[in-house]
Write a structure and sequence with these properties.
five-stranded antiparallel beta sheet, two-stranded antiparallel ribbon, about 30% strand
């Protein structure tokens, strides 16, 4: 497994829509393993392939607490098939927007159809932090960032800050 460099705001690749994974093979499983390694190293609880510059509909999540056994979930070609009317608010952050957090309101529960790392169709019913994490990562696959769910004023400030940081680094990637 390899830790990969993260794509950071304002890199325009983060706005790309990801393409479906045609078939689950060793290449996809290796990518999923690398994504998990990168996510744990960051550290984070979710990562979409687009955050590594790979526009494929693949994400990984692990919402287990530090003192719990790891519980990684590999989610390929996810589709939200149901969401609750009830809403919940979590303070979200993003590995592609380091050290910035904001309260985001989303459906409290979601049902997601997906394919697992073995190519088998699965369905997960999630609530709480897992529901938020899945929605956040699925947004990434659609070119949507969590800052798109906050006020335009705050979003513009964040984008300006990260654009300035990128220029000072000499580019938009790490």
């Amino acid at each position: 497994m390899t830790i990969k460099p993260l794509v950071l705001l304002p890199d325009p690749v983060l706005r790309d829509k990801s393409e479906p994974v045609e078939r689950v093979d060793d290449e996809v499983r290796t990518l999923a393993d690398d994504m998990l390694e990168t996510m744990y190293d960051a550290p984070g609880i979710g990562l979409a392939a687009i955050q590594l510059g790979i526009p494929r509909r693949l994400l990984v999540v692990d919402c287990s607490k530090e003192d719990e056994e790891k519980n990684p979930i590999v989610v390929i070609n996810p589709e939200i098939v149901a969401s609750s009317d009830e809403r919940s608010t979590y303070e979200e952050g993003c590995l592609s927007i380091p050290d910035y957090y904001a309260e985001v309101e989303r459906p409290a529960q979601v049902t997601v159809d997906y394919v697992d790392r073995d190519g088998k169709k699965q369905q997960i019913e999630a609530d709480g932090l897992l529901a938020t994490c899945l929605q956040h990562e699925i947004d990434h696959l659609n070119g949507v960032l969590f800052i798109d769910h906050i006020s335009k004023l705050k979003r513009d400030m964040v984008i300006r800050k990260f654009t300035k940081l990128a220029k000072s680094r000499g580019g938009t990637r790490l």
